[in-house]
Structures are given as C-alpha cells and as structure tokens.
Amino acid sequence: MFDLDRFQEIWNTITRNRVRSFLTAFGVFWGIFMLMAMLGAGHGLERGMWEELEGIATNSCFMGSGRTSIAYKGFQKGRYWNIRNADIDILEHSIPEIDDISPLLFGGRMDNNTVYEENTSTASIKGVKSNYQKIEKQTLSLGRFINELDVVQARKVCVIGEKIYEELFPTKRNPMGLYVRVRGIYFQVVGVTKGVSSISLNGKSEESVFVPITTMQKLNNEGDVIHMLAATAKPNVKVSDMEKKMKDLLKAVHSVAPDDEQAMWGFNLEETFNVFKYLFLGIATLIWIVGSGTLLAGIIGVSNIMVVTVKERTREIGVRRALGAKPRTILGQIVMETLTLILIAGLLGICFGVLVLQLADVLWLQKAENMFLSSPVISFWTAVTSTFILLAAGLVAGLLPAVRALQIKAIDAIRDE
To answer: Measured between alpha carbons, how far is residue 127 from residues 4, 112, 124, 181, 330 in Å?
Structure first.
C-alpha cells in the first residue's frame, strides 16, 4: 500500500533546499524535454519524407535510351536509338525477375494545350498502359483509369488530373463522357485522378492527362517508339540486378556496346529508399545519443546534489543508525529521494515536450505547405521507453549517495559538527 507519511517525509527532504532542488531537477527536465522534442522532430521528418514517397513502387526501376558513346558492330558512336514495343515482350519472356513492366510516352507540356469550351489548362501529356497504376498508384475521384481495351483499340479516351479538371470545369460539372481537346485532338474523359506520390514522372498526376500509349504513339507520329520503361521486381528480387539484366538485354537487341554507359540512362527506387532508410536510422541514433547525453548530464547533477545532501545530513543519518535503523532502510530512503526527484522532473519534461510538439503541429505545421515534415508526435512506446530510462537512471543515480550514506558510522556522525 501507498505510505503517505513515508512519501511526505521524502518530499520534505527534497524541498529542504528548494532552490538547489529546483535547479537540479531542471537539468533532468530540460534533458528529457530536449530528447522528446528531437525525437518528435525526427519522427515528423521521417514520416513526412515517406508520405512524399508513398504511392510509388519501392521495387521499381526506370530507364530510357540515349546516345551511344562507343562504336559497335559497324555502327559509329553518337548514334541515337529507341526502345520499341517489341522490346517489352522480349524483356518479359527473357527476364523472369520482372513482375510488371509499363512503357511511357511523353507528349510535352505546352501552354494551354488542353481545352474545354472557353477554358484552357496546361498539362503534361502521358501515354501509358493499364498497368501503370502498379508503378505509380492513382487515386481516382471520378470514373476509371486507362484499361487494356483502350490500349488495344487505340481509343481516344483520357484520364485528367484533378488540377486540370478544376481549370477546365470550374463549375464542378461532371466531365465523364465529355470531350476535351488535347494538342488539337479530341479525347473523351473517362476519369479524374490524383496521384498518391509527390514524385514527379514528367509532371505530377494532378497536372497531367493520361491517354492510351498506342493512341499517343499515333499522335506523336513516332511509330512504336517508347520514351521510358518502368518495371517492378518480383518479391525477394534485388531491383539493381533486374535493372542490369534489362539494360544488358536491350543493348544486345539494339546492337549497343555492353560497356556503353551513356547509351542508356536509368535509376531504381530501391537504392533511393535504402538511402532514406539508413539516413533516418542515423538521424534517430544521433538524436538518442545527443538527447541521452543531455539527460545524463542532468541525472549526474542530481546524483552529485544528493551526495552533498547526504554529507549535510551526516548527523541525522548517524542518529538513525544509532537508534537501530537498518542499512537497507537508509539505502531505500536515499534511492527513493533521488528517484522521486528525477521522476517528477522527467515526467514533467515528457509532458511539456508532448505539449510543445502538439502546439507546433496545430499552430504551424498544419498551415505550412510543401514541407517534408509531418506531425512531429512521439509514439506511446517512445514515452514508455523514456519513462523506463528515467527509472533506471534514477536507481543508478541514487546508488552513489546511498553507498556514501551507508559508510557513515554512528559514532562519527554524532561527533560531526
């Protein structure tokens, strides 16, 4: 049961010298507050970055053709070459590591290239297949996305981004089935979309118009040319290995030197995500080191103050020893005094840190735009872990003054002045 008299005795001892106790406790308070603030900011930065990257396949790679820099098989260097429709079937049948592959074709971004009645908008035109959604997820607010039948029949249909929809249809009219003019050609609207990810592949989804890639190829009058290939790897397959196999095969098919690095460009998101993962791991480690160091300084201060307090109470401890107080009673009293002081200061620091993070989120971050920083909150388990650290630190900090108290002999304490 809770001993109120015992707690009152400990509290009276702690508050005997209020100024000294306050300054000592403030060190612990400030240390745990800084730890909470840095953890919250670090977690907010991490969540903000992952939210920006959310919606794009993490196991994907992208590549396109370039200009050769090495003469090969009778071809001079400086030759331009293109990835074509037939290459997709070759890649799918030759590289089992590929899970999905989607070609992309770009139609440029010219001013006022999308028109409905008297309203105009500037859009990025993208030719895609139906499986493009497996590379970059789309959030459809109306209608549907490009399907396989649209591609096979080269239909003149389109999916417009939300921003394009707002500019072409300011009255919020339902655009399904209506025709918009894209680069002078009329397309029937079958959907309105907004991308999940903030990664821009030749323009954000909400600022783009998606059309079937076969229709786009006819619009561009470039035959079966493909500007970019996007592919995802099967589970447990390293994306960089799949990417290398794809590039090597494409070079072989198009008579490009295997060691010609300039003939193809590309990148894979697996490497990018790994960089972010290790970056945030390093940030979290640094935060714990710096925050724990600040907290440790405050706890050492508490321990030192308790040593001084024990020295000042030499006579009191000696009298208690002479009256028959057991060593564990003296030990428990000193440890409890130290633990109580650290816990009170530490829990106040945790509460104040959570309050400051919440206020920062409500008053500032929710109003800010285009920031790679989400709500800077700490998890429940982070608070629990911090509390256990306080308990462990309080016990350790109380040992030194407690041992000092046990070394006091009753006869020497009574003689002490």
So the answer is: 76, 18, 10, 16, 80
